[in-house]
Amino acid sequence: MALSPEVRKRHFEELGPALLKLKKSIRELPDGYEFELPADNKTYQLLTEWAFQERLCCPFFDIDLHFDREGGPLWLRLTGRSGTKEFIKEEFDLANSR
């Protein structure tokens, strides 16, 4: 209910799938995951739109965006309290997306 029907549709049917297709690698963390993405403007715009919406529908996430220095990749870090890592693994279907 945190997202309007139009925003929800874009978030789950367009932004999420587009970002997962752009994913270069995944790092497992003790309390979540990091996703490596291309460090280009289009990806950054998609990611910031997605992150802003994701924090509304999943307020238990800690969401960090980080650019590595010297032209390195863009990283999305999703972490949180107990149970968050398992939620991410299931929600993002990580078992089948590596």
Give a concise summary.
The protein is of the alpha+beta class. It is built from three helices and four strands, in the order αββαββα.
Task: Please characterize this protein's 3D structure.
The protein has 98 residues and is an alpha+beta fold. The protein has one domain. The chain has 3 helices and 4 strands. Strands 1-2-4-3 form a 4-stranded antiparallel sheet, covered by helices on one side. Helix 1 packs across helix 2. The longest helix has 18 residues. It is globular. The termini are far apart. 9% of the residues are buried.
User: What is the oligomer described by this structure?
Assistant: single chain
H/E element string?
A: HEEHEEH
Instruction: Find the structural class using helix and strand composition.
Output: alpha+beta
User: Main sheet, how many strands, which sense, barrel?
Assistant: 4 strands, antiparallel
Q: Got a strand count?
A: 4
The general outline is globular
First-residue to last-residue Cα separation:
30 Å
Q: Give the number of domains.
A: 1
Unreliable stretches (pLDDT < 50, length at least 5) are none
- What number is the mean pLDDT? 92
Proportion of residues in extended strands: 25-35%
Strand order of the main beta sheet, please? Answer: 1-2-4-3
Number of helices: 3
What is the helix content? 40-55%
Cα-atom radius of gyration: 13 Å
Question: What are the defining features of this structure?
Answer:
98 residues, four-stranded antiparallel beta sheet, 4 strands, 26% strand
